[in-house]
Amino acid sequence: ETPTTAITPRAEGESASSKTIRRSEVATHTDAINGGVWVTYKDGVYDVTNFIMNHPGGVDKLMMAAGKDLSELWRLAPFQQHFRSPLAFELLEEMRIGSLTGWPRR
Question: Residue 48 in contact with residue 62, Cβ under 8 Å?
Fold first, then answer.
């Protein structure tokens, strides 16, 4: 029996949004040095590893969402400004590495 991978590889020229990634795989990416830091938002999966040090709110704030869904954090009062910032969404799209398998959440 062939083991299944958590990430479906992309063919050359295929966009990042067509690569599918399991939520369980995202949850393992919580360390900038060992494997990188990934987050999700809606159906997207984003590698924010290279952005951590530049996050205006500081490293600690972004690491609160490591391996998780950003919207959970962004719903909290201190972080709701992200929903009003086109820049936050533009930056996320630049870091998109794929789409969640089985999105939307059931």
Answer: yes
Residue pLDDT tens, the chain, 106 long: 333 334 334 445 556 657 999 999 999 999 999 999 999 999 999 999 999 998 888 888 889 999 999 888 877 777 766 767 788 889 899 999 999 997 666 4
Rounded to an integer, what is the distance from CA 91 to the centroid of its chain? Answer: 11
Q: What is the pTM of this model?
A: 0.77
Which residues are CB-neighbours of 81 under 8 A, at least 6 positions away?
none
Residue 54, CB-side half-sphere exposure with 13 Å CA sphere: 6
